[in-house]
Amino acid sequence: MNQVSVIIPAYNQGHYLAAAVQSALNQTHADVEVLVVDDGSTDDTAQVAQQFTDPRVRYIYQENRGLSGARNTGIRHATGDFLAYLDSDDLFLPDKLAILLHEFQSRPRLGFAAGQAMPVDEAGRPIGKLFDKPLPVDLTQLLLGNPLHVGSVLLRREWQERVGFFDETLRSYEDWDMWLRLALAGCEMGYVAQPVSLYRFHRDQMTRDGRQMTTATFAVLDNFFARPELPPAWQGMRARAYSRAHLRAAAQAYRVPEATAEAKQHMLQAVQHDAALLADEAEPLAQILSGWTDLPKIADPLRYLEHIYTHLPGELALLTQRRARDLGQIAMRQAFQAYAAGEMQRAKTAVSRAIFYQPRWLLNRGALSILLRAIFRS
Fold this sequence. Notes:
single chain, 378 residues, alpha/beta, Spore Coat Polysaccharide Biosynthesis Protein SpsA, Chain A, eight-stranded mixed beta sheet, 48% helix, 14% strand
C-alpha cells in the first residue's frame, strides 16, 4: 500500500473541519497521513484539529499566508508518495483514494488522476449537477478552464517536485495553474468517471468573490503565456483561452446587478477573441450561456439567464434575437426537472414561464401534461 498525504489547509472554518478530517481518516485505503495546516485562524480551528487522537493526524500552525501558502506548508511536511488536497469545508467520499490509486496501479506511468465531485450545500445535501467534465484528451484544452475540483485529484509526489509548489501570488485558481504546469511538463493524467469528493457551497466561501476569481483567471493565463519556451500547440490556444476567460468573468459579473456594465464588456471581449462564438446564429455562445444555468451558485437559473439576455451588449444582436426561444427552452428544462423531483409548484411556475416566452409549448403534449398535473397536485 502506498502512503497518501492528505493536506487540509484550514482558515477560520472550525465548524466544518472535523468532518473534513474524519472523511480523510475514513478512507477504505487506510495508509494515510492527514496534515491540518492552520493558516493563522482566529476561531476554534486549533482545538478542533487537536481533538483527534489518531496518530495519522498532524496539526501544523503558521501565520496567515493564504490557501496556496498553507498547501505548500503541507507539502513540505508530507511524507507520502502521493498527495491529496482537501479544503477544510469539503469532504472525501470513502473510496476516493482507493478508486484513484487503482487507476495508478493500472497505469504505472500515470502522474495525476482525478474523479468527479458532487456539489453539496452547507448541510451536506446534494445540489446541482456533478462536476463531471472529464479531462480533455488534448491537454492544451485545459487552457479553456479548470474542469476539476481540487478535492477530486491525486498527484504522484515526484511530479509536484518536478513542477514546484502552488503559486502563492494567486488568490484563486492556484489549482488550475498547477494542473497546467503539470500538463506542460508532460505529466500523464487520468480521469475516473466516479464521484470521489463533496464540494461544499456556502455563504462564507471565498470563491464567491467574483472579481477575485476574474483577477486570478487572467493572472494564470498571463503567467502561462509569458513562458518563452511555450510550445506552438499551447501558444495557439491563446485567443480561445482569453475568450473563455472573459466569458467566465461575464458569468461572475452578471450575478451582481451593479456589475452589469462590466459583464457586457467581458462579453464583447470574448467574441472579439473568438468570432466563432457567433457562428450559426450565435449557437456556440448560446450553448455556453445555457450551461451557466447549471452552476450551483445560481439560485434561480431562469431569472439569471433573463437578466443576461436583457443586458446584452448591443453588438450581440444575433444573440438577442434568440432570447424568447432560448429562455423558453431553459424554462421547459427546469419544468421537467422539477416534475421529475416531485416539486409540482416549481414545475407549474417553470411551464408557465416557458409558455410566456414560447406559446407553442401549449401544443407540446409533455409540457401540457406537466402543467395540468402540476395544477391539480399543487
